[in-house]
Write a structure and sequence with these properties.
This protein is α+β, with helices and mostly antiparallel strands. The chain contains ten helices and 17 strands. Helix 4 packs across helix 10 and helix 5 runs parallel beside helix 8.
């Protein structure tokens, strides 16, 4: 289940408006809004999130008096993530004196009408590719298993320059690198879970990738595609086109993460159980996404420092990936945490 919090503000000069709040075909609230209102409810695990607010009460008398009668959506949160009602909400003006029906993109409801928001929900559930990839290290028991994308694999770096290797040297422990260049968070979590079922370790570190990357299962070819926004696909079917279209239209980090929070928590809990209730640590190299992760209460004791891409330090030869000093800095930073 997902947690939803709707925070509404109201302003009126003489008469408050009445509203109905409907979500997943269920009436959540009905009545006059005489003061600011905050409503919290559960939302089932669907492919999309839908919310509807029906506003009424702007009568001819109120309109003639030029009195204000407003509802504004101060915030709309799904699992603590901002769904940006100001960008993605649409208000259908309806049954208003002197005003024709029309459609507005807004979070402010000043007239009568129906406000709606409909957003895709992305899941963190993915397919393991553990048996299909060649990793820096052999798949076997270790002290700490590390999963991630190219920032973990160490694109353009020698193995001895990657942060898992440096962390192992700092801790004098067996730390293995199971990063995959071009990976995504669905694949990272699925591989970590698969590993936790087959091998023993004390801890697992997940250095998450961009939220906008997707593991897409092509139903026609049965091929797993690690898609990212800069990837060129010469031949794609309609289902993949729809996934990409949704990603482009709703690319806010908080929206991409919102639907994944329950699955992320469930996956981490399961992995920790598999490794004998050891700890799954998590981090990111994208500041905005790291801040979103830091707001999830469940992750606070598991969150490692941000992988900081210090612009003053030299990057890898491709100019995009971290250089040796970036890896050394992060390995040193997380060593302090793991040594506590």
């Amino acid at each position: 289940m997902h947690n939803v919090v709707v925070d509404l503000g109201t302003v009126y000069d003489s008469r408050p408006c009445s509203i109905e709040i409907i979500s997943n075909n269920q009436k959540i609230f009905e009545g006059e809004v005489i003061k600011d209102l905050k409503i919290e409810f559960d939302y089932p695990d669907h492919d999309s999130f839908e919310l509807e607010i029906i506003k009424s009460g702007k009568t001819m008398d109120v309109a003639k008096s030029k009195h204000r009668q407003e509802i504004y959506i101060r915030s709309l949160l799904l699992n603590g993530c901002n769904l940006h009602p100001e960008k993605f909400g649409q208000f259908q003006l309806k049954d208003n004196p002197y005003v024709q029906d029309s459609l507005l993109q807004t979070e402010k409801l000043t007239l009568n009408g129906i406000w709606k928001i409909n957003l895709p929900l992305y899941r963190i559930l993915g397919v393991s590719t553990l048996s299909k990839n060649t990793f820096r290290d052999t798949l076997e028991d270790c002290d700490i298993a590390c999963f991630g994308c190219s920032f973990t694999y160490g694109t353009s770096m020698k193995q001895q320059q990657t942060w898992p290797y440096l962390l192992g040297a700092n801790l004098n422990k067996k730390v293995h690198n199971y990063g995959i260049a071009g990976s995504n968070n669905q694949e990272i979590l699925a591989n970590a879970e698969d590993y936790s079922k087959k091998f023993k370790c004390n801890s697992i570190i997940l250095l998450l990738s961009h939220f906008c990357r997707l593991q897409i299962n092509d139903a026609e070819t049965e091929e797993l595609i690690n898609w990212h926004p800069k990837m060129e696909l010469t031949s794609i079917n309609n289902s993949i086109k729809n996934e990409i279209k949704k990603m482009i239209l709703y690319s806010e980090d908080s929206i991409l993460l919102a639907g994944q929070v329950p699955g992320l928590i469930e996956k981490i809990s399961l992995i920790e159980k598999n490794i004998g209730y050891g700890t799954v640590y998590i981090s990111s190299y994208i500041k905005e996404q790291y801040l979103l992760l830091s707001q999830i209460e469940y992750l606070k004791d598991r969150l490692l420092p941000l992988f900081n891409l210090d612009q003053d330090k030299p990057f890898a030869s491709d100019g995009h990936h971290p250089g040796p000093l970036h890896y050394q800095q992060w390995a040193d930073n997380i060593t302090k945490i793991l040594n506590k």
